[in-house]
Design brief:
The chain has helices at about 5-30, 55-70, 70-95, 105-115, 115-145, 150-175, 180-200, 205-215, and strands at about 35-40, 45-50. By secondary structure, it is mainly alpha-helical. It has a two-stranded antiparallel ribbon.
C-alpha cells in the first residue's frame, strides 16, 4: 500500500481504539453506583458494575502503546479524562432543571441514580489518571527491557500493578469514612482479583489483535508507527 494509504489506515485505527477506550471509560463511570455479584464458579466476586467494562480500557491502552507509542497513548488518556468531565457537567445540568410531571424519569429517580455521580467520577478520575499513566509507563519500561519481545509480560505486568492502584484509589475515595476498613479491603481484593483475571484472559486477545495489526501494516515486533 502507498505511504498515504498506510497513514490514513493507521489514523483510522487510532481513532477506533481511542473511541472504544473512551466509550468503555464513560460507561464505567455511569454504571459504577450499582454493586453486583459475579459468580465464576470458584469464587463469587462483589464488584461495582463499573468494573465490568473497565478491563477494556487497559486492553485498548496496551494495544495503543504497542502500536502507536507512549505519547499518542497518553493523548487518548487525556481525552478520556476530558470526556468524563463533560459527562459530569451534563449530569449536573440534568439535576438543575426540574422534571415535568409527564417525565418518565422524575427528579427523585434521577437523583437516586446520579446524585453520587460527582463522587464516583471524582474517584474514578483520580484513580484513572494515576493508574493509566502508571500502566503506560510500565508497559514501555518492559518493552524497552525486553527489546520489543515478550508482549505477554508487559501486557500483564503493567496491568496487574496499575489495576491494584486503580482499585485501591477508587474504593478509598468512594467509601472512606462511610464503610468499615474491612469492607473496603474486601471490595479492593475482589475488584483487583477480577481485573487480574480479566488481564490474564485478554492475553490471547491482545496477541491476536497485535498479530493482525502487524500483518496489515507490515510491522516488526516492537515497532511503532505514526500517521502524521
Amino acid at each position: 500500500m502507498s505511504e498515504k494509504t498506510r497513514k490514513n489506515r493507521a489514523f483510522a485505527l487510532y481513532l477506533l481504539l481511542g473511541g472504544l477506550f473512551i466509550t468503555a471509560l464513560v460507561t464505567c463511570n455511569l454504571i459504577a453506583n450499582k454493586f453486583v455479584t459475579v459468580d465464576l464458579g470458584f469464587k463469587t466476586f462483589v464488584l461495582s458494575a463499573g468494573v465490568l467494562p473497565y478491563p477494556i480500557t487497559f486492553l485498548m491502552t496496551d494495544i495503543l502503546s504497542e502500536v502507536f507509542g507512549r505519547r499518542k497513548t497518553n493523548a487518548v488518556v487525556m481525552v478520556g479524562f476530558a470526556a468524563s468531565l463533560l459527562v459530569l457537567f451534563m449530569l449536573y445540568l440534568g439535576s438543575v432543571f426540574p422534571a415535568i410531571p409527564e417525565s418518565p424519569v422524575n427528579d427523585e429517580y434521577y437523583n437516586t441514580v446520579f446524585r453520587n455521580s460527582w463522587r464516583v467520577i471524582t474517584a474514578s478520575m483520580v484513580a484513572y489518571l494515576t493508574a493509566q499513566l502508571i500502566d503506560i509507563r510500565l508497559f514501555h519500561f518492559w518493552k524497552r527491557l525486553t527489546k520489543g519481545k515478550q508482549l505477554w509480560l508487559r501486557n500483564n505486568a503493567s496491568t496487574i500493578v496499575s489495576q491494584l492502584v486503580d482499585t485501591t484509589l477508587v474504593v478509598f475515595v468512594l467509601f472512606v469514612g462511610t464503610l468499615p476498613f474491612e469492607t473496603m479491603t474486601a471490595f479492593i481484593l475482589d475488584g483487583w482479583l477480577f481485573k487480574v483475571l480479566a488481564a490474564l484472559a485478554d492475553t490471547l486477545i491482545i496477541y491476536f489483535l497485535i498479530w493482525i495489526i502487524r500483518r496489515q501494516f507490515n510491522l516488526k515486533p516492537g515497532e511503532e508507527m505514526d500517521f502524521l
